[in-house]
């Protein structure tokens, strides 16, 4: 069994439909298949369903959601557990706070253009947001502040899921996390 040499928080940020969850799931599977242990996944949709279902999507509620998630990530990472977190996390200030509070924060910007995210939208959320049926929707009625200096940038329109996962995997190996 291979364990992380040090805890980390690999934080995938990007618009809804950018590919965060798909990439996070595939990276997690790759690590588990290579016998890496002490890896946990935190996903925005699952956290909203299980841990923060009392919160909405106002800026304040988004901040409270990320505050709770970063607390969990902090506990895990400081105990030598690798965390793969996939959250829209639209505000730079929130991501900076998470970086300050967690061990070995790695910001991953899933840089997928809005028009591609809208084409991938199987839930119809963008359409609902554009017609006013959903308020506070990131990228439409709420802002997404693009990371200015992420540790890793993945352009899903130019590479496969496997290439994206390999980019993250190689970063973790080359930077001594495993």
Automatic annotation (TrEMBL):
<dbReference type="InterPro" id="IPR002891">
    <property type="entry name" value="APS"/>
</dbReference>
<keyword id="KW-0067">ATP-binding</keyword>
<keyword id="KW-0418">Kinase</keyword>
<protein>
    <recommendedName>
        <fullName>Adenylyl-sulfate kinase</fullName>
        <ecNumber>2.7.1.25</ecNumber>
    </recommendedName>
</protein>
<keyword id="KW-0597">Phosphoprotein</keyword>
<comment type="similarity">
    <text>Belongs to the APS kinase family.</text>
</comment>
<keyword id="KW-0547">Nucleotide-binding</keyword>
<feature type="binding site">
    <location>
        <begin position="14"/>
        <end position="21"/>
    </location>
    <ligand>
        <name>ATP</name>
    </ligand>
</feature>
<comment type="pathway">
    <text>Sulfur metabolism; hydrogen sulfide biosynthesis; sulfite from sulfate: step 2/3.</text>
</comment>
<dbReference type="Pfam" id="PF01583">
    <property type="entry name" value="APS_kinase"/>
</dbReference>
<feature type="active site" description="Phosphoserine intermediate">
    <location>
        <position position="89"/>
    </location>
</feature>
<feature type="domain" description="APS kinase">
    <location>
        <begin position="6"/>
        <end position="155"/>
    </location>
</feature>
<dbReference type="InterPro" id="IPR050512">
    <property type="entry name" value="Sulf_AdTrans/APS_kinase"/>
</dbReference>
<keyword id="KW-0808">Transferase</keyword>
<dbReference type="GO" id="GO:0004020">
    <property type="term" value="F:adenylylsulfate kinase activity"/>
</dbReference>
<dbReference type="InterPro" id="IPR027417">
    <property type="entry name" value="P-loop_NTPase"/>
</dbReference>
<dbReference type="InterPro" id="IPR059117">
    <property type="entry name" value="APS_kinase_dom"/>
</dbReference>
<comment type="function">
    <text>Catalyzes the synthesis of activated sulfate.</text>
</comment>
């Amino acid at each position: 069994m291979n364990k992380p040499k040090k805890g980390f928080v690999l934080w995938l940020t990007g618009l809804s439909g950018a590919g965060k969850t798909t990439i996070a799931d595939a990276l997690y599977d790759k690590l588990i298949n290579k016998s890496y242990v002490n890896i946990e996944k935190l996903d925005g949709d699952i956290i909203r369903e299980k841990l923060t279902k009392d919160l909405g999507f106002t800026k304040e509620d988004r901040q409270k959601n990320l505050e709770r998630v970063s607390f969990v990530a902090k506990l895990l990472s400081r105990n030598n557990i690798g965390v793969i977190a996939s959250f829209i996390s639209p505000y730079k200030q929130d991501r900076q706070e998470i970086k300050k509070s967690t061990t070995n924060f790695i910001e991953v910007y899933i840089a997928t253009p809005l028009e591609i995210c809208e084409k991938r939208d199987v839930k119809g959320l963008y359409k609902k947001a554009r017609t006013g049926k959903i308020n506070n929707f990131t990228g439409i009625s709420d802002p997404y502040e693009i990371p200015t200096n992420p540790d890793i940038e993945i352009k899903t329109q130019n590479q496969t899921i496997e290439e994206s996962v390999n980019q993250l995997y190689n970063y973790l190996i080359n930077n001594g996390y495993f």
